[in-house]
């Protein structure tokens, strides 16, 4: 009985008397207590993250410059960075690069717009409506397994050497990643939320607009990312085979004259297009989903 | 002759009882420029059941998260036992694992683990649901599975973060009895964070009230067990605790 009251007293006075507190701490340590080890992400300065991100590309560039300077990489294999920069200046000066970029970007953009929209609509229909899935899914899955490169000869027969053939090829290539991601994302929508919205009298399309699409946005955007990458790949395929303008045409010309500097410029442009596409999706993620950052940041 | 062993047994039992399980001195935690916890001192002995009360936003969950190593302290001494488990307000079961796998998650695989998992499920009355998917359980069942998951590790400190808050009133009463029962059997030190005064008085050996970053009350519950809300001592303590929480 007395020991209990003693302990209670000690507990009550401990914070006042510093020595007692130290004594208690030592006793607690002796009893095998440990400090909890937290594994928390410490906030990192933005500049550091940015630096780390640019480190990889810079290392590649450095390696390329070094190989060119030491003679390990001769000009008939690949031009040096300086020569490539020179070629950019030359192509930009005579307007060739700007023209080619405009043409190529129009093709890729148009194809992507058509393909992503088709994929989005098909994905929502099969993901949300059971009848849609039963009717469409197996057909789309069959089409999806056809490599889009196999369609090139067929499209040439159908459309000839026209813009339509190129845009259609890019459209077909970009449809399927968008479709797969969308239908998956839509299928994962919270059923309870749909039920709640239904009880408030929302119709099917209103539910798709207010709940399903915002909920599926992460999946939609990752599908868009894949589609964007594929649009550049399909662009190369379309332009390499038959074209009279665009980056692919520029490359074909450079190949005929063994201009490795121009070839390198074109390859870099393709790479930059992919990088830009990725950046655009990242930006979209931030702009389109403002509610996401709030819940993830404050993990209390 | 016979008295000597009895006294030794008694003294060793008090010795283990007196050994601390939680030792907090001057704990501080600051969010932005607001000190949610500002010099909290709290000790919990082994096998002791402490209920921490507080209005919402007073930092009681933060304190629990610091003890569970889910949040960091900005100052002060924090000492806890090496084996701690948490039951959260939501069950937090992994939807892709069956109930038994959820209970034994992270434990070494083997027949013995399966056995202990099943035993833990039997203790919470869920042994028939061992192969069910978590999504098929009711709220109370899922929370019991979460309790089994916490107890199967034989924790020296069990942290309960408003574990009954999302349950209906009847299930809550049943769960409180179950928790009281299991804690008496396993004897871990328990910190129950709640805003339900009745729950705190029903279950705890000691109640503490957190307000304005510090403990404004830390007292032993002297109400006779089994605790009846009709008991005048119960009503008296409840009135005082509610006053501490700003409800009159």
TrEMBL record, chain A:
Major location category of this protein: membrane
Chain segments carrying region Disordered: 1-26
InterPro entries associated with the record: MetI-like, MetI-like_sf
Membrane topology recorded in Swiss-Prot or TrEMBL: Multi-pass membrane protein
Gene3D superfamilies given in the database record: MetI-like
Record field: transmembrane: 108-129, 141-161, 167-186, 206-224, 262-284
Cell location: Cell membrane
Highest rank taxon of the organism: Bacteria
Pfam families registered for this protein in UniProt: BPD_transp_1
Keywords (A to Z) from UniProt: Cell membrane, Membrane, Transmembrane, Transmembrane helix, Transport
Keyword Signal carried by entry: no
UniProt keyword Acetylation, yes or no: no
Domain ABC transmembrane type-1: 97-281
PANTHER family for the chain: ALIPHATIC SULFONATES TRANSPORT PERMEASE PROTEIN SSUC-RELATED, ALKANE SULFONATE ABC TRANSPORTER-RELATED, MEMBRANE SUBUNIT
Family assignment from sequence similarity: Belongs to the binding-protein-dependent transport system permease family.
Protein name, per record: ABC transporter permease subunit
TrEMBL record, chain B:
Molecular function terms from GO: ATP binding
PROSITE patterns xref list: ABC_TRANSPORTER_1, ABC_TRANSPORTER_2
InterPro entries, per the entry: AAA+_ATPase, ABC_transporter-like_ATP-bd, ABC_transporter-like_CS, ABC_transporter_ATP-bind, P-loop_NTPase
SUPFAM superfamilies in alphabetical order: P-loop containing nucleoside triphosphate hydrolases (SSF52540)
Keywords: ATP-binding, Nucleotide-binding, Transport
Top-level taxonomic group: Bacteria
Gene3D superfamilies registered for this protein in UniProt: P-loop containing nucleotide triphosphate hydrolases (3.40.50.300)
Domain (ABC transporter): residue spans on this chain: 22-237
Name of the featured protein: ABC transporter ATP-binding protein
Gene source species: Kitasatospora putterlickiae
């Amino acid at each position: 009985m007395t020991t209990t009251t003693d302990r209670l007293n000690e507990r009550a006075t401990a914070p006042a008397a510093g020595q007692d507190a130290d004594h208690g701490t030592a006793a607690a340590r002796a009893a095998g207590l440990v400090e909890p080890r937290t594994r928390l992400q410490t906030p990192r300065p933005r500049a550091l993250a940015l630096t780390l991100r640019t480190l990889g590309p810079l290392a590649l560039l450095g390696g390329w410059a070094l190989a060119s300077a030491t003679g390990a990489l001769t000009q008939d294999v690949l031009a040096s960075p300086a020569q490539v920069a020179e070629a950019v200046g030359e192509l930009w000066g005579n307007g060739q690069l700007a023209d080619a970029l405009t043409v190529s970007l129009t093709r890729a953009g148009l194809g992507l717009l058509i393909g992503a929209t088709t994929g989005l609509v098909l994905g929502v229909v099969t993901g949300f409506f059971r009848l849609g899935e039963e009717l469409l899914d197996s057909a789309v899955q069959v089409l999806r397994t056809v490599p889009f490169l196999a369609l090139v000869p067929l499209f040439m027969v159908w459309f000839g050497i026209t813009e339509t053939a190129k845009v259609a090829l890019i459209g077909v290539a970009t449809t399927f990643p968008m479709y797969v991601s969308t239908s998956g994302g839509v299928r994962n929508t919270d059923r309870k939320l749909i039920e709640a919205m239904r009880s408030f009298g929302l119709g099917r399309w209103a539910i798709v607009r207010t709940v399903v699409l915002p909920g599926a946005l992460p999946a939609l955007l990752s599908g868009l990312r894949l589609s964007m990458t594929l649009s550049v790949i399909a662009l190369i395929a379309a332009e390499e085979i038959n074209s009279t303008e665009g980056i692919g045409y520029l490359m074909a010309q450079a190949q005929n004259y063994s201009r490795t500097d121009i070839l390198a410029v074109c390859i870099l442009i393709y790479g930059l297009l992919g990088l830009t596409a990725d950046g655009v999706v990242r930006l979209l993620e931030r702009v389109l989903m403002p509610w996401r950052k709030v819940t993830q940041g404050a993990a209390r | 002759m016979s008295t000597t062993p009895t006294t030794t047994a008694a003294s060793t039992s008090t010795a283990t009882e007196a050994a601390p399980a939680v030792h907090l001195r001057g704990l501080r935690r600051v969010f932005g420029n607001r000190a949610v916890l500002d010099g909290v001192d709290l000790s919990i002995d082994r096998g002791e059941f402490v209920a921490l009360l507080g209005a919402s936003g007073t930092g009681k969950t933060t304190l629990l998260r610091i003890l569970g190593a889910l949040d960091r302290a900005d100052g002060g001494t924090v000492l806890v036992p090496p084996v701690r488990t948490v039951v959260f307000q939501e069950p937090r079961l992994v939807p892709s694992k069956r109930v038994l796998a959820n209970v034994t998650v992270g434990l070494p695989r083997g027949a013995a683990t399966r056995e202990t998992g099943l035993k833990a499920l039997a203790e919470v009355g869920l042994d028939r649901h061992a192969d069910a998917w978590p999504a098929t359980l009711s709220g109370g069942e899922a929370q019991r599975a979460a309790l089994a998951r916490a107890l199967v590790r034989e924790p020296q400190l069990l942290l309960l973060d408003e574990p009954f808050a999302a349950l209906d009133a009847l299930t809550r009463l049943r769960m409180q009895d179950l928790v009281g029962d299991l804690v008496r059997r396993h004897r871990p030190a328990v910190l129950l964070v709640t805003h339900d005064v009745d729950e705190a008085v029903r279950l705890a050996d000691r109640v503490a009230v957190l307000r304005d970053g510090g403990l404004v009350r830390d007292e032993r519950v002297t109400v006779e067990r089994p605790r009846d809300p009709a008991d005048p001592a119960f009503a008296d303590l409840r009135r005082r605790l509610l006053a501490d929480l700003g409800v009159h």
